């Protein structure tokens, strides 16, 4: 086991502590500005943003400064002393800082944005066209290897990233869709008369996906070049769908 999995994530504390609404509002603003390629923010700008909302009507600049310092301690923000416009020693001693969102926090906020768009049920899909894209990308990778890597590095990196992106999305979408099928809401729908109307469409949808999976896995098995490419092989076992009990299949009328 990787021991890094066992360590507490200090950067996530702001989500559950007292005054979490203040920390979340501050870091969401930093995140949105990061997405706009504005890396460093001054406290005055953050304060002006927060004061637009009723929840921060009584919020003071001193409280903001305390919150910023706490977020620095939790490694959510990176503080940098501003020295560009200092004219006197007294101004230097005041240590005016500007702040940047840390990489960990950017990813946490990005994940939260995704979670906010999710419903209470799993989504996902069994999109068979992704197999064709994955195979085409692997063929392109094989061509690059056989050609001696004469393409530009950016082009090679793009093909590599696209290949693993197709692979990852097939797994994620398939797993989410199977979880959706195995959910309690789906069980109730399978027992209803209305589900029988869609039974044939659902069966065809699942069958087409499995056929595309088997076809593409055989094509990918034919790609043989280097050990590097062998690590990218996807066989039928690699995409085996989670087990659906006979009981569930009987309910669906299959």
**Mind describing the biggest β-sheet?**
3 strands, antiparallel
Order of helices and strands: HEHHEHEHHHHHHH
The low-confidence parts are 225-254
Rg is 26 Å
Task: Record the strand order, biggest sheet.
Answer: 1-3-2
Number of strands: 3
Q: Tell the overall outline.
A: flat
> What's the end-to-end separation, in Å?
41 Å
Averaged pLDDT:
77
Structural class determined from secondary elements:
mainly alpha
Number of domains: 2
Helix content: 55-70%
Determine the number of helices (DSSP H or I, runs of at least 4 residues): 11
Strand content: under 5%
Pfam families: DUF2397
Protein name: TIGR02677 family protein
Describe this structure in words.
The protein starts with 19 loop residues before the first helix and ends with a helix. It has a three-stranded antiparallel β-sheet with strand order 1-3-2. The protein has helices at 20-35, 43-50, 61-73, 89-93, 103-116, 129-146, 153-181, 184-191, 194-221, 227-230, 246-251; strands at 40-41, 77-81, 97-101. It has two domains: 3-116, Orthogonal Bundle (Arc Repressor Mutant, subunit A), CATH 1.10.10; 129-251, no CATH class. The longest helix is centred in the middle third of the chain and has 29 residues, at 153-181. α2 crosses α3. With 254 residues, it is mainly alpha-helical.
Q: What's the gist of this structure?
A:
With 254 residues, the chain is mainly α. It has eleven helices and three strands.
How are the SSEs placed, and which strands pair?
Blueprint (H helix, E strand, L loop, with lengths): L19 H16 L4 E2 L1 H8 L10 H13 L3 E5 L7 H5 L3 E5 L1 H14 L12 H18 L6 H29 L2 H8 L2 H28 L5 H4 L15 H6 L3
Antiparallel strand pairs: 1-3, 2-3
Helix pairs in contact: 1-5, 2-3, 6-7, 6-9
